[in-house]
Write a structure and sequence with these properties.
With about 170 residues, the chain is mostly helical. It has helices spanning about 1-15, 30-40, 45-75, 80-110, 110-135, 140-170. α4 packs antiparallel against α5 (about 110-135) and α4 (about 80-110) packs parallel to α6 (about 140-170).
C-alpha cells in the first residue's frame, strides 16, 4: 500500500503539481550548486545545532520504537493487548502534542515551545528512570511506566515540529 502511495505521489509530483516558487527566487539545481549549499549548511551553526539535536532525539525515539515491546512484554510482563494500548495511546499523545504546537506556535513562538517540549520530555525520562531504579527488581507497576512514557513522547510530539520550524527559519547566505 505504501509503495502504491509513494508511486502515486511521485507521479503527481512530476506530472501534476507545478512549482510554486517564482522563477526569480529559485536556486540553481546543478550538482556544484547543491554541493555548495550543503557545505554552507554544514558550517552554519544556527542551522546545524537544531539539526544535530533533532537527530539525537529521533535516534532516542527509534530506540523506544525498537525496544519498548521487548522490554515491556518480556521484562515487565505486559500482554500484547496492553502493549498495543500503551503504544497507541502514546502515539495519540504525540499527535495531540503536535496539534498543540500548531495552535500555540504563532502566539508563543517555536523556541519557547521547543523549551517546553524538551523540559516535558526530560521530566518524563527522569521520572521513568527513577521509577525503574526505585521499584522492586527495577520493574515498576505499569502506570508508573505508562505515564512518564506518555509525558516523554508528548514532549517529543511538540519538539519535532518546533525543531523543524526553527531549522527552516534559520537564515542562510
Amino acid at each position: 500500500f505504501l509503495g502504491v502511495v509513494g508511486v502515486a505521489m511521485t507521479m503527481l509530483g512530476f506530472l501534476g503539481i507545478p512549482e510554486t516558487l517564482p522563477a526569480e527566487r529559485r536556486q540553481a539545481s546543478g550538482l556544484r550548486e547543491v554541493t555548495d549549499r550543503m557545505r554552507d549548511l554544514l558550517t552554519d551553526r544556527v542551522f546545524l545545532a537544531p539539526v544535530v539535536v533533532q537527530c539525537l532525539v529521533v535516534a532516542g525515539f527509534f530506540v523506544y520504537i525498537g525496544g519498548s515491546s521487548i522490554v515491556l512484554q518480556t521484562q515487565v510482563g505486559i500482554s500484547e493487548r496492553e502493549y498495543t494500548a500503551l503504544f497507541a495511546s502514546n502515539a495519540l499523545v504525540m499527535v495531540l502534542a503536535s496539534l498543540t504546537f500548531r495552535l500555540l506556535v504563532v502566539r508563543a513562538g517555536a523556541a519557547v515551545l521547543r523549551r517546553v517540549a524538551m523540559t516535558a520530555a526530560m521530566l518524563g525520562a527522569v521520572t521513568l528512570l527513577a521509577a525503574c531504579l526505585l521499584a522492586p527488581d527495577h520493574v515498576p507497576p505499569l502506570p508508573l511506566l505508562w505515564a512518564p512514557l506518555a509525558v516523554m513522547l508528548g514532549g517529543l510530539g511538540m519538539f519535532l515540529p518546533a525543531s523543524t520550524a526553527i531549522t527552516q527559519a534559520a537564515e542562510h547566505d
